[in-house]
Design a protein that fits this description.
By secondary structure, the protein is mostly helical. The protein contains 20 helices and four strands. The longest helix has 49 residues. It has one domain: MFS general substrate transporter like domains (Growth Hormone, Chain: A), CATH 1.20.1250.20.
Length: 483
Amino acid sequence: MAATTGAQTDGAQGARGKALGVSIAAAVGGFLFGFDSSVINGAVDALSDHFSLGSFLSGFVVSIALLGCAVGAWYAGRLADSYGRRPVMLMGSAMFIISSVGSALAFSVPDLMVWRVIGGLGIGIASVIAPAYISEVAPASGRGALGSLQQLAITIGQLVVLSSNKGLAGAAGGASQDLWLGMQAWRWMFLVGVIPAAVYGILALSIPESPRYLVLRGEDEKAAGVLEHVSGEPDGAAKVREIRETMRKEHKSSFADIRGSRFGLHPLVWVGILMAAFQQLVGINAIFYYSTTLWKSVGFSESSSFTTSVITAGVNVVMTVVAMLFVDRVGRRRLLTIGSIGMCVSLLATAIAFSQQQGSGDDVTLPSPYGTIALLGANLFVVFFALSWGPILWIMLAEMFPNRMRAMALAIGTAANWIFNFLVTFSFEPATSHIGLSWLYGFFALCALLSFFFVIAKIPETNQRTLESMTGDTHARTRTQAP
């Protein structure tokens, strides 16, 4: 008996290791997400100078990729159900490679926009497929931590590319200066993206297909094998029968599955949309798309601005790891409420600091101690975001919907996230010029406060629940509190 128990334990540990391995491979799509979201950070000023862009056009060049992301996210679920998760991952990899090369060699604003949109399509696809795939292979007991790998990969991508941008700009003496082969440093910033995109494609070839897709295709034996060897299911055949039973009660995901009485959509779909919106409306990408420009605007040198951006990205990585350690112990809702309060306070401090800026145009400074307060406030905001809303949005979108609507609802929620990302990113530079950083960060603080009440009122707890147990009951939050 002891030997049997030991063998079972070894088998369970081996399965957990395999689940972690394939989840890491899938989450490299998140790395591309983070890479693309921050590669423009170091290049935006050089781009604006090279192509003589005003604030409106500069904001549009930065944010247009996000429209491609929204479209890619919208179609990703249906493509994955038709062709499989792995082929769609390969498609995303190829699009990002094309985008990286095209952006690096761009000769005009229109063709740069085309390459940015193509990259956006690939990132949008990866942003849906990675959390969906991880939720389908991960055991319920560890799904929160494994689902957090998506956000961890995003933060690592941001840290790596900001470090790369700093190194390239430093080697050339500035982002707009020539580096190698007669190409400016900002072009090499884009070209580096070929490396992680190729790695993502190679890893996609090495992981098994999703068991739920295999069941959909009638390949029950393969699905059972994946469930036993990767997900750690003791009886893969029984789990296949459970999955098939839920599918028998369902049909191909369509708008009919997400319809409801509230403005035409099921209430839980609205919860997903609003949650995706709040994650962006707190202003996280004002930090990661424009942090270098932001710190330069209040008196930091270009070198110091790059360094500050790298430090912020490093904080983001560390706190995302902390979130991974606690998300399955503390529960999703509790971490979200802690994050909302912390973000609100830190954003208010940053807004107050920016209200004290002196000078105008290129000659702007923050007098002591407000420069320090702004820096601490921005980094504390990242701490609380990374601890909560950063990773938990992707976990919730992948697991809170019932099977009959999961693919469509996940696509809508992710597309909404990209649309609000676009709105915040596109409006940041014009808003900074017209209303100032203090009022803008005050608005972000208000959104963080509203997100607290939204969590309390609307978000269900999904901790420790299997995907097959999700019913779409919006009142489940009061019955499934984490201990």
